[in-house]
Amino acid sequence: MGFSFQCQASCSISKARAGVFHTPHGIVETPRFMPVGTLATVKGITPRQLQDAFAQMILANTYHLHLQPGEDIVKDAGGLHQFMAWDKPILTDSGGFQVFSLSELRKISEAGVSFRSPRDGSIIELTPERSIQIQNALGADVIMAFDECPPSNASKEEVAAATARTYRWLTRCIEAHQRPSEQALFGIVQGGIYLDLRSQAVEDLIALDLPGYAIGGVSVGESPELINGTVKHTAPLLPPNKPRYLMGVGTYQEMVQAIAAGIDLFDCVIPTRFGRHGTALVEGKRLNIKNAQYKRDYQPLDSTCPCYCCQNFTRAYLNHLVRSREMLGYMLLSLHNITELIRFTQQIRQAIFNDTFTTEFAHWF
User: Fold this and answer.
1) Is 141 one of the annotated active-site residues of the chain?
2) Whether residue 52 lies in the annotated active site
3) Catalytic residue selected from 141, 147, 264, 267
């Protein structure tokens, strides 16, 4: 099976929609949160646990997998699905975000980006063609175009230049893509907080008729109000028959607002990063399980949560594990947090079918 997206239900008040994205490794029911597995592993979580958490699609990182173990090793293992024993859909990012996050280590030119490896100091050349070549070798279902993500404090001229370069790089990505029937190449809409640049970028990308589209360059230092305004403007401009992916967003409020604008897919490192720091997400609240108030708290994190952590362990036990710096504590919290965010998007999906989205989730707007 190739790639297709069908909208199954829509909200009568907002632009929220529920749909299904078909990929060669199965379906993704949207809206959906996708856990991040940077190095072909979601930190502390087994693939079986991911399935139990209702994960349908996960992410891996092109740049980091290129550094370690190298895409040739992954390819020789049968691709990412075989290598990490995950038989459901996978998305790889392009390495473009590292252009933003590793600004101290890189130089950008029209050809691409040269990095100084944080591992051994060697120079790595990452071009649109090289990014696609690596992603073709990794074998994910969805691959991302190589883009330039300007920082939030960039001037409009700098953002315009980066957006134009992102488009030129995208055309080179399309040209370099060797596996279009097996891997869907998504374009990325840049433009910062400048809505006219976003509109032009969408217009340019739509003309290329790609299998899906992402909104990038948000959650890189702007205020929540600016993020919401940018997404609210941009998402409805994207084709209704293609999946829409908002990159790097995973808080409850951001997801609700983005879904109301018509976004389908999200990813964020929040659930496992919080888990590794002893923080649990419960109904939108952040609980620091190390706090003394949980020492004798013998209830589960969330009595309504079906995850292995909530079904078997108390807050008191988790408090003990985290205070003792036991690995199990961080793993259980990460598992719960992933389950929590996926459940949240599942509940929103059901509310869209029931046409109760704007009333049920009004407190998040």
Assistant:
1) no
2) no
3) 267
Contact between 153 and 159 under an 8 Å Cβ cutoff? The reply is: no
- Predicted structure pTM score: 0.95
Give 242-263 pLDDT, tens digit per residue.
999 999 999 999 999 999 999 9
Of the candidates 133, 1, 9, 118, which has an alpha carbon nearest to the alpha carbon of residue 67?
118
Last residue of a domain, one of 217, 249, 268: 268
Region of 291 (left: φ > 0; alpha: ψ -120 to 50; beta: rest) is beta
One-letter amino acid for residue 93 of the chain: D
Q: What is the CA radius of gyration of the chain?
A: 20
d(CA 358, CA 161): 38
For residue 170, report the phi and psi dihedrals to the nearest 5 degrees: -60, -45
- Catalytic residue of the set 52, 93, 141, 355: 93
Q: Are residues 24 and 113 in the same domain?
A: yes
Structural domain count, the chain: 2
**pLDDT (tens digit, 9 = 90+) per residue, 33-76?**
999 999 999 999 999 999 999 999 999 999 999 999 999 999 99
